[in-house]
Amino acid sequence: MQPVLHVEGLWVDYFTRGRRLRVVQDVSFAIERGEMLGLAGESGSGKSTVALAVARLLRPENAAVGGMVRLNGTDFLALVGEGLRQTRWKSVALVSQSAMNALNPVINIFRQFDDMLTAHGYTDAVQNRHRAAELLDLVDLPEQVLNRFPHQLSGGMKQRVVIALALALHPDLIIMDEPTTALDVIVEREILSKVKTLQRQLGFSVLFITHDLDLLLRLTDRVAIMYAGQLVETGPVGHFSRSLHPYSRALVQSFPSLHQHASDRRRGIPGAPPDLSHPPAGCRFHPRCVFVADVCQTAPAWEAVSEDPLIAVRCSRWKEIRDEFVSTVD
Ligand SMILES: Nc1ncnc2c1ncn2[C@@H]1O[C@H](COP(=O)(O)OP(=O)(O)OP(=O)(O)O)[C@@H](O)[C@H]1O
Ligand SMILES: [Mg+2]
Predict the structure, then answer these.
(1) Which atom of ligand 1 sits closest to the CA of residue 49?
(2) What does the pLDDT look like over 6-49, one tens digit per residue?
(3) Rounded to an integer, what distance in angstroms lies between the CA atom of residue 99 and that of residue 90?
(4) What residue owns the CA closest to ligand 1's atom 25?
(5) Residue ranges per structural domain of the chain
(6) In a 10 Å sphere around its CB, with 0-12 CB exposed, 13-18 middle and 19+ buried, how is residue 92 labelled?
(7) 37 C-alpha vs ligand 2 centroid, how far in Å?
(8) Contact 195, 113 (CB under 8 A)
(9) Does the Cβ of 112 fall within 6 Å of ligand 1?
(10) Is the pTM of this model over 0.85?
């Protein structure tokens, strides 16, 4: 079956102060129907840029996007004008890092639903009210919320409203970019378990972005790890207890896990991510890598380790260090 989202060789350049800076390079992944893929990586690694590029929300005057993005088999990067506007919310909805601020402060919640539905051809206000109430019910909010203004709602309620808005046009794919970072842990858990339930119930796919790898390993089906604008490893969640790439291994180790004892020492990753205007030659992680060798001066390919389940890695030494790697952490 064809994936809902198929990204191949995606790159993104930002235009800033007269310079052109490549921040995403050679990113390839796919998301199947009903699947939740988690995208993790340090701050500045390009996760939000991937989200914005996939949702076609980057302005051409600010950024250039290339490679392939197919949504249900359609070349999404080739769409322009009205075709793009209509397809965008129907196929893909973005719940962003600042989603709660995306609500218009001067209109009530019903108007936010009504404006959106009207813009997509649903012009009957009575039906829209009914639909908005149904959508709020999906995220466990009472109908009365429709009469409230954003400032009258708690952070968690606003985030539920934003998720309900994202669901309004039955998108095949919802991209969630750090949707709960502004919320406390209890509310975050409630909202994420709601998203999981809705996903099972409605069958949409999710690209879930966070720097919290431990959260992804608990929430998603598959994970992709990003470093300095590139994917370095992808595989099913279970694969990451034996991950191949030195960066993913270090990232896994830098998070406290549910299964670990409090006395276990967390290990940070020495060094800092590269300046993307001067990325290191060859493997971008090599200056921080404990397994660095001469071969790392040459850029490693994005290589499939297995096809089903798909496991891919960007490390020239993964075969050599695999055993050594595992024995250092067991
Ligand atoms: N509008 C922009 N113009 C120029 N450069 C940008 C722009 N937005 C982001 N960048 C740069 O692109 C790189 C990737 O940023 P991005 O926001 O995609 O990272 P991220 O992984 O989402 O980080 P975080 O975890 O902090 O959200 C960073 O170096 C950032 O400084
Ligand atoms: Mg981001």
Answers:
(1) 18
(2) 999 999 999 988 899 999 999 999 999 999 999 999 999 999 99
(3) 18
(4) 43
(5) 230-257+283-330
(6) buried
(7) 16
(8) no
(9) no
(10) yes
